[in-house]
Amino acid sequence: MKIDSHQHFWRYSPSSHAWIDSTMGVLKKDFLPEDLEPLLQNHELDGCVAVQTDQSEAETEFLLKCAEEHPFIKGVVGWLDLCAEDIEEKLQEYSKNPLLKGLRHIVQDEPDDYFMLRPEFLRGISLLEKYGLTYDILIFPKHLSSALELVKLFPNQPFVVDHIAKPKINGKIEPCWEHYMNQLGQQDHVYCKASGMVTEAKWGKWSKSDFIPYLDVVFNSFGAERIMFGSDWPVCLLSAEYKQVNCILTQYLTKYPRESRKQVMGLTAQKFYKL
């Protein structure tokens, strides 16, 4: 099964999507399953994983409803307040829906760079394994040291680093980013999404070769068996069309054996999210 492990749906609202600023006009509209399905079909992808963007239970329910109505949406990474006192009750309730595969918090926007190490957040993370849920780590490179501490605390909890931790794609590999990606890759329960790269490059003014050094670090750190393709559609449209994002990775993968290509383009996501 070929899977896009990372994309979003929304009914655009300036209040719910305040992160979409004046430079992101292309995103100021609805993006729904019927918009994505033909793109998946055109690229011979069997399905996708829908990921949260708005930190609300209402959005989690919206994504689950989308998945219930559209079989190509194989799973949902939603949001629940992991710091809430009643988080276990929420997990008991939401985990009854088999389409909920994991949770994500937009840590990159938290003013506290050490948010992931707060006791109340750690308590929430500690409960995910019990309910069979994964956790998507959305961070900037400055958060990588905290991410490493986090994953070491929970060796049985499946984690995935979104968007290769969002390094700036500018031809200058930051040694700190490379170091911590190597360290995270040494943790067998940590995976990585080859996603979100085009928006970290100069929008619309990149070449496929720009991404090769960064992908080399990721593949050397995690191996194909723990890397999954994600388009980050529709956010990717700020810098590239869906076919361009897909081509970056498929072209890079030509130097790998067929089995490795199959892992990155679907089998890894299938295993990680239990699709």
Order of strands in the sheet with most strands = 1-2-3-4-5-6-7-8
CATH superfamily: Metal-dependent hydrolases
- Report how far apart the termini are: 9 Å
Q: Tell me roughly what share of residues is in helical segments.
A: 25-40%
Instruction: Please state the overall shape, judged from the principal axes of the Cα atoms.
Output: globular
* SS class: alpha/beta
Number of strands: 8
Largest sheet: 8 strands, parallel
Q: In CATH's first tier, which class applies?
A: Alpha Beta
Q: How large is the share of residues in beta strands?
A: 5-15%
Low-confidence stretches: none
Listing every helix as H and every strand as E from the N terminus to the C terminus, the arrangement reads EHEHEHEHEHEHEHEHH
CATH architecture call: Alpha-Beta Barrel
What is the rounded Rg?
A: 17 Å
Query: Helix count?
Result: 9
Average pLDDT number: 97
Question: Into how many domains do the coordinates divide?
Answer: 1
CATH topology: TIM Barrel
